[in-house]
Amino acid sequence: MTDSYRKEHFWRSLIWPILWPCLLVQLALVLLCLLVATMPVSGSYPETSWWPLLAIMTLLLLGTGLNLGAFGVLLRARVNRSEQALEQSIGELEQHLGALGTQDKHAGSVIGVDDNSGQRAPLIERLGKANEQLAAMRHAGDKVLAESVLPEVDARDTLLDDLAQTRQQMNQLQLGRDRAREESRLKSGYLNLLRRETSLLFKYVDHWSANLPAGSVEGVNEFKERLADIRALLGNLVDESVAEADAQQDMPAQPARVLVVDDGPVNLMLAKRVLEKQGLEVTAVDSGEKALTCQQRQHFDLVFMDIFMPEMDGLETSRQWRRYEQAQHIKGSILVALTANVDGAGRERCLQAGMNDLLAKPYQPESLINRVMTWFPDEHFPDQPYEAFTP
After folding, report:
1. What are 281's strand-pairing partners?
2. CB atoms within 10 A of CB 147
3. For 257-388, CATH number?
4. Where do the structural domains in the chain lie, given as residue ranges?
5. Which end of the chain is more exposed for a tag (fewer CB within 10 A), N or C?
6. What is the pLDDT of residues 31-84, one digit of tens each?
7. CA angle 9, 11, 14 (to 5 degrees)
């Protein structure tokens, strides 16, 4: 390999750059001399001047012959090497073909099958039957796998449907409870009003019956007795309503559920810490998609929604939030936008997306608490809520 490399390097570095230029120059000189020799000779040149020219031409022809001979020798050597490499490759190829033929014969002898087509046919038939059996076994395995997986998928879908129905029923029960509390307060107010009016009417009848004649007092007394029974009945109803309202107030109130949606990790962490220190149940997510997923799991009373977020922004998240509430017939959450654009156009876009309020960014921790107190005035907060704002 080293000798051939040296020869090739010698051929490229010395023969080609020197042989061809010298050969071309010599051919040009020979042609020039022949051209001069064929020109008509005038009598002004002496005859002795031709001998040097002939000597130069002879030397040039001799040098050209030597160069052509050297070039032919080198070219022949190169052709011989190429022929040897080609013959070597052909020999190696024949050896490989012979080895492959030997392996085929050996494989045929191991299997016990000759080149006779009559003996190959049963083997091919057996292989086809084995292939059919494998296909049948694969089909049966796929069928068994499908039968074992489908019940699990159906059970999971059934559980998800039951969970969705249970969540919807819980939301409806919560709405019914709130409606019942409101009706109880209204009923208590109406009963108090009737009781007060009945007491005034009873006093008026006493005053009016004092000026009546003795013969007509009996009918007035009967009316007063019935009026007293009505007043006592109203008093009992009022007491029962008050007791029921007190019992409902004595029940531990569930803290308001707040969802904070912000793609900034620092703002998300600080808002969560501030609201949790006020006794609120806080969930924090960093994208609109996660917020919609949390909405399907539980109800939130208040949502602080960042407007500028990647992928799904706060406006599109609010629109899908409202559509889900309308489709499920659940109580609407209070959506508060967290945005730096609090001008008229920005406020209008937020309100059109279904939001209820805006909070300018950057905001102070007390601004979050003030916004919660604005929408939930009945929520109980610590006496000094702003002491816990230091992160």
Report:
1. 257
2. 9
3. 3.40.50.2300
4. 1-38+52-82, 190-250, 257-388
5. N
6. 777 776 676 655 455 555 667 777 777 777 777 777 777 777 777 777 777 778
7. 95
- Computed over its alpha carbons, how large is the radius of gyration of the chain? 55
Tokens of 279: 């006794």
Helix boundaries (H) for 210-337: 217-250, 265-276, 288-297, 314-328
Q: How far apart are CA 285 and CA 269, in angstroms?
A: 10
Nearest CA among 296, 304, 227 for reference residue 261: 304
For 311: left if phi > 0, alpha if psi spans -120 to 50, otherwise beta; the answer is left
Nearest in space to 249 (alpha carbons), one of 334, 193, 188: 188
Q: Read off φ and ψ for residue 382, nearest 5 degrees.
A: -60, 160
Amino acid at 195: R
What residues contact 287, with CB distance under 8 A and at least 6 apart?
261, 263, 309, 310, 311, 312
Please give the Cα distance from 369 to 282 (Å, whole number). Answer: 13
Biggest distance spanned by C-alpha atoms of the chain: 192
Could you report how far apart the first and last alpha carbons of the chain are, in Å? 77
CA distance 272 to 135: 59
Nearest-angstrom CA–CA distance, 11 and 7: 6
Nearest to 346 by CA among 332, 360, 331: 360
Comparing 197-211, 238-252, 342-356, which segment has the lowest mean pLDDT?
A: 238-252
Instruction: Pull the structure tokens for residue 194.
Output: 């009737």
Q: Residue 281 in 3-state DSSP?
A: strand
Q: Are 338 and 306 in contact (CB under 8 A)?
A: yes
Q: Which amino acid is residue 158, in one-letter code?
A: T
**pLDDT: which is higher, 129 or 151:** 129
Q: Which amino acid is at 4?
A: S
Q: What is the pTM of this model?
A: 0.38
Q: Which two structure tokens, joined as six digits, stand for 11?
A: 């051929």
